[in-house]
Design brief:
- This protein is mainly beta and 716 residues long.
- It has one domain (2-715): TonB-dependent receptor, beta-barrel domain (Maltoporin, Chain A), CATH 2.40.170.
- The protein has a 22-stranded antiparallel beta barrel. Strands 3-8-9-6-7 form a 5-stranded mixed sheet. Strands 29-33-32 form a 3-stranded mixed sheet.
- The radius of gyration is 26 Å and the shape is globular.
Length: 716
């Protein structure tokens, strides 16, 4: 009903829209590119388009042409090319952990990801959902990435970094495209894009389908292996393969007319394998599912002299559903069960069908905002705005064969046959239905106070219904030292809102929520340089330091086997990033970057661990014949220390090489490409979580072996 009402309201708005001249952000960008010599524009840093060198942040833009050169099949392969960003893996579904500058957490809540400027955050975990399943790339026009905090502009979770995915409009597609891809691990992809004018509307449509059995690297041992040693059983499925099957469907529509733009979309995820297991125990049968619906309508008017007025309303609905039982520990497992019917201090109980828990959640997010910008002052450009967000976990369901049976009051494992019982809406459930209301306002001034000097300063105030207020300022001093050199000195603060899971989770065998949590906070200081000594040659260099406070951690409870969420951590980090881009000839482009970071857990006086201390990336785009291009790329991941209490050796370094060969304009309309991932078939791994007394998966998380992909697309 909510979806129907929102789409109906959008249709009504379009029905009454004036037929004024359409807003053409593409034409605006082309004009700016001519002024600034083809330099990439970025809007995520300040809310309006400006050259990267003058943006009040350290930003990266990856275009559709870059994505094609990389030969990427998923957004993660694109983001891995960004300086200072490393894509690690969560044990649950192998979901990506976008680690910026050594800032790591299991659910990656410290990174804000947006699609067309609208967050796609799941409030339950504070992440992109446990049923993420990747994001296809054919409908992506560009990706803008800011390293460092952005809460003064975007509010919560714009903490370690901000990622904004901008989808294609009619002008980006300009016609029709159909294509397909086949590859290793029984992977099949298909897509269709169409852009045209219809009945006075600019229309863009995109449908992308992905089906795979998933890479099947072997996990040597898991958490169940430890219970097997303790109780003399053999229930563990390790050594055994990962469970990474996927069936994805992504569909989007973009309509523009006059000052209005409407976007809508669906991301369906099904047959979603759980990676190395929800409880770090292999589970070959469990499957997640999810439907993510989004719709937004925007009115933007720049016709009034010196004024820009933007109003927006958006709706986002997301779910975490169980298609097949989540078997946290496999059939035949013997586990110590306490008086509360959950794992803890108690007698051993054997679960013939496995230890099963099926938590499901449904959320909706409604956002409205109003922004005004004024550029009539001689030296100032002012932006201000207000907004309101409503986040609701409106339904939660769970069935399980552990805990307390709400009907009898007895531990479920003591009942005959250890049945699977639906405890939704009872005192035995895992989370209540909760909501959160957020009101905010922001102000920003870009002040050209002297020739070649600009100060951008701003702040945002957020009022949360569940934990109170937060205020986040920022400032950036930019000096155009010469026609080819720009220097930036920047300060920013940020906050990360506690997730519903961290605040309200109940009856969990390991973790308990805390409604008294405060947000995590960060302060960040950066010095950056952008140097362009010649046409087609660019160097970037920046240094950073950050102070991360009030980190939310689950702290062990006294005389209990559970841990409760507390603001109980602090981390400091520093480092630098260097990047270079050289258009050596019309047919040859070289791209590279190097990132260094050191992060220290100030609470435990130890290296923070997990994130690589050194990252090096190189890529060559070579058009060696007309319509033929060859793009090799390599990355080196070096220096991943262990966190406090983890006695394992550091994670082994690795070198990863990919190749892409592409043939364009075959019979004028056809394009072919062939890619190899992990060319040298290296045994690369990402760190698994530390554990007590030992990690659940001791030999870390294996990445995919060598794989091959071939694709064909037709444009007409």
């Amino acid at each position: 009903m909510f979806r129907f009402l929102f789409f109906a309201a959008c249709a009504a708005c379009f029905g009454t829209a004036a037929t004024a001249q359409p807003v053409s952000t593409e034409e605006e960008e082309r004009a700016l590119s001519q002024i600034y010599g083809g330099e990439e524009m970025v809007s995520i840093a300040s809310g309006y388009k400006q050259p990267i060198s003058q943006a009040p942040s350290i930003a990266t833009v990856v275009t559709a042409a870059d994505i094609k050169a990389i030969g990427a099949t998923d957004i993660d392969e694109v983001l891995e090319t960004v300086p200072g960003l490393h894509v690690q893996r969560n044990t649950i579904g192998y979901n990506p952990i976008y680690t910026f500058r050594g800032i790591f957490s299991q659910f990656n809540q410290q990174v804000l990801m947006m699609v067309n400027g609208i967050p796609i955050t799941n409030s339950y975990t504070g992440s992109r959902s446990e049923v993420w399943g990747g994001m296809p790339i054919r409908d992506i026009a560009r990706i803008e990435v800011v390293r460092g905090p952005g809460s003064a502009v975007y509010g919560a979770d714009a903490f370690a970094g901000v990622i904004n995915v901008i989808t294609k409009t009619r002008r980006d597609i300009d016609g029709s495209e159909i294509g397909g891809r086949v590859g290793s691990f029984d992977s099949y992809d298909g897509w269709a894009l169409h852009g045209a004018e219809w009945a006075g509307f600019d229309v863009a449509l995109a449908v992308e389908y992905h089906n795979t059995a998933g890479q099947n690297a072997v996990v040597d041992a898991d958490l169940q292996s430890q219970f097997d040693r303790l109780f003399g059983t053999s229930a563990s499925l390790a050594p055994g393969p990962l469970s990474l099957s996927r069936e994805n469907l992504d569909a989007r529509i973009d309509l523009a007319r006059g000052h209005w733009r409407f976007r809508g979309g669906l991301q369906h995820r099904g047959n979603f394998g759980v990676g190395s297991g929800v409880a770090q125990a292999l589970d070959s049968t469990a499957r997640y599912g999810s439907d993510r619906w989004n719709a937004d309508i925007t009115y933007q008017n720049t016709d009034i002299e010196n004024w820009e007025w933007t109003s927006q309303a958006s709706y986002f609905e997301t779910s975490q559903e169980i298609e097949r039982n989540l078997t946290l520990f496999p059939p035949g497992s013997t586990l110590p069960i306490g008086a509360n019917g959950q794992i803890g201090a108690g007698a051993p109980v054997t679960f013939p069908n496995g230890y099963i828990g099926n938590p499901e959640v449904w959320e909706r997010h409604v956002r409205v905002s109003q922004m005004l910008a004024y550029s009539g002052f001689r030296r100032h450009q002012i932006r201000s705005g207000i907004g309101f967000n409503y986040d609701s976990l409106f339904q939660a369901r769970v069935s399980q064969n552990f805990g307390i049976d709400p009907g009898s009051g007895l531990p479920i494992p003591s009942l005959p046959g250890i049945p699977l019982i639906d405890v939704s809406g009872t005192a035995s459930t895992f989370i209540p239905e909760v909501d959160r209301k957020i009101a905010y306002l922001f102000f920003q001034d870009q002040w050209n106070f002297a020739n070649d000097w600009t100060l951008t300063a701003g702040a945002r105030y957020d009022r949360y219904s569940d934990f109170g207020n937060t205020f986040n300022p920022r400032a950036a001093l930019i000096w155009e030292a010469g026609y080819d050199l720009t220097a930036k000195l920047m300060y920013g603060s940020a906050f990360r809102a506690p997730s519903f899971q961290e605040m309200y989770i109940l009856n969990n065998p390991a973790q308990i929520g805390n409604p008294q949590l405060k947000p995590e906070t960060m302060e960040n200081l950066e010095l950056g340089f952008d140097y362009r000594p010649a046409d087609g040659l660019r160097f970037g260099l920046n240094f950073f330091g950050y102070w991360w406070k009030d980190i939310i951690r689950f702290v062990p409870d006294s005389n209990a086997t559970t841990a409760t969420a507390q603001n109980r951590g602090a981390q400091q980090g520093y480092g630098g990033e260097f990047e270079a881009e050289w258009q050596a000839a019309d047919s040859l482009k070289l791209v590279g970057n190097y990132a260094y970071q050191r992060s220290r857990d100030e609470t435990l006086h130890h290296d923070a661990g997990y994130g690589p201390q050194h990252q090096l990336y190189l890529r060559m785009n070579w058009q060696f014949l007309p319509d033929w291009s060859f793009s090799p790329q390599a990355k080196w991941i070096v220096g991943r220390s262990r966190s406090f209490g983890d006695s394992r050796e550091p994670v082994a370094d690795y070198t990863w090489v990919d190749l892409t060969l592409r043939r364009q304009n075959l019979a004028k309309h056809v394009e072919l490409a062939f890619s190899v991932r992990n060319l040298f078939d290296v045994s690369a791994r990402e760190p698994s979580l530390a554990g007590s007394p030992q990690p659940g998966i001791p030999n870390d998380l294996p990445l995919a072996p060598r794989s091959f992909y071939g694709e064909i697309s037709v444009n007409f």
